[in-house]
Amino acid sequence: MADVIAFLIKHFYDLDACPPPSDLGQILEDIGFNDIEINQALMLLEVLANCPEVSETQYHRDAIRVYCEEELKSLPQDVISLLYLLDDAEAINGEQREFVVHALQHLPPEEITVDMAKVLTLLVLWAHKSELPALIGAELMMALHGKAVMH
C-alpha cells in the first residue's frame, strides 16, 4: 500500500486533484498495483475525503495522548515515539495522529513499521493540504523512497 500512497502523493497535487475512485482504481490497476493495495488505499482516501476539518478550538495542544493496552500491543514503541515527535513538533494535529493510529491498527503486524507510519502521516497531511516543518517533511518524504533514517 505504501507504493500506492507514494504514487498518489507524487502524481496528484492533493486529494481534490485525484480522479473519482473508480477511475483512480483503474489507473492504479493499469500501472500494475495489486487489488489489495488499491482497495486499501482507496478506502483510506474515502475516509480522508469524508473527515471533517478540525478547528483549533477542538484540538488542545496541552492534551496528552495515552495509548490503550491494545494499541501498546500492536504498535511498536518506535512508531509511538514517531507519533509523539510529530505531535510535539506540531507537524500533525490530534485528528491526524488518530487517523494514522487507526490505519496502522488495520494492517497486518509485519506492516506496522516506522516507515509505514511516515507514509500514512504523509497521506493524511497531503489530503488535508497541511504544511510541514522543512526538516520533518524531508524526513517523512524519505520514507517514500525507502531511505528513512529518523526513528
Automatic annotation (TrEMBL):
Entry-linked InterPro entries: Smg
Residues passing through the membrane, by range: none
Family: Belongs to the Smg family.
Organism: Neisseria zalophi
Name recorded for this polypeptide: Protein Smg homolog
Lineage per the UniProt record: Bacteria, Pseudomonadati, Pseudomonadota, Betaproteobacteria, Neisseriales
Domain of life: Bacteria
